[in-house]
Amino acid sequence: MRLAAVDLGASSGRVMAGTVGPGVLSVAEMHRFPNGGVRVAHAGGSTLHWDILGLYRELLTGVQAAHKAGALNGLGIDSWAVDYGLLDASGALLGNPVNYRDARTEGVAERVLESVPARELFDVTGLQQLPFNTLYQLLAERDLSAAETMLLIPDLLNYWLTGVRCAERTNASTTQLYDVRSREWAVDLATRVGIPPRLLPPLRDPGTVVGTLLPDLAAELALPELPVVAVGSHDTASAVVGVPAEPGTNSAYISSGTWSLVGLELDEPELGDAALAANFTNEGGVDGTIRFLRNVMGLWVLSESLRTWEAQGTPVALPSVLAQAAEVPALSAVVDIDAPVFLPPGDMPSRIRQACAETGQRVPATPGEIVRCVLDSLALAYRRTVRQASELTGRPVDVVHVVGGGVRNELLCQLTADACGVPVLAGPVEAAALGNVLVQARALGADLPDLAAMRALIRDTHELRRYEPSGREADWARAAARIDPKVVA
Hints:
alpha/beta; Nucleotidyltransferase, domain 5
């Protein structure tokens, strides 16, 4: 079976061709393209958008290339969460989707919490409080009167492919408009905060066929009328399918990319007061699982640092600067990588230096020192989050699986093992694409009855790398206390 997996990230997108069969699982990149925010000026200032039509064009180019390389049997799309397009009654897009890093939601969450307490919001949705949650973005819209339907990014692209408007549950669960217990839209909550329930489309489980390519589109592209499958359309949901955990093991996962998603896979949501206070989230996973996790800033800070140096006329090659970072003494300087100052685009090296100065640490000067600070700080955030997830659920963690692009960063993988104090199993890099392909394959008839079977196939066909912790636990505890004096080792 040959399948196209469209995997869209905040920095880049790609179309992968996956092959699935008995004892066979592979993916190959057919087309890669850049992604990112496009800032557009208007009378009131400016807005950061996504180039959704450009993404759609690249998606079609990639699917055509995949089919030319070998006949396809299906297609599935995953992407980042929370962002959406609004359609009018005719199905026309009302405007380019706004990028979640845009400042339009400033102050919106605070206004909502005045009428709906955080405890109540969490009890219904199970979601981490993030300023860019879909609920807050919709309330930041200037006018919803012409909008008939809200479609999250993968659902919008699926609609253009098939003509079917629906929402896949794993991504819907990230909106803060989804009831984590009933697995349906939280219509009462939407009405209470002023969001018209008409915007919320019918829900579909991951692993269901949305429809087939529209006949005119298929003819135009010289493609068959392929089935389009609703996969775990939040890229982290697909990536967690691709975590090759052994059944019965006490494992945590880190899906490492522009964002790092750090957590555990559960059967039921964890909605206690401690989880609320720790700002954890309960997002839907494939086969009714719960992704109990917290967003960590991720490799965004590193990529923005590289972009800043290039813009300043002093470009730095990633392999070179990682080698320099490996020579910098461990934990020389650390920052709270999740601090709001690191969320928007901008001059990350200056922000890192300022944060170090404000906490009385030696200020990193060279690119190698700054990158080492970023990686040490990321590993500290992983340590904190893995330990909190374990404490909140009462589940020990004996191994951490790292999947996604961060697998290629060997220094970060080793630092993660050192910081967490348990072995790290790194791989596969293409976990999201593999998870996407596996869910498609099952929907189209492959003998993959459950997540255990899917993960066994990954373990049988992909090599993992193991990193052992260094045993320097006290050093990491002291470093954690530098940025949070309340931390307990």
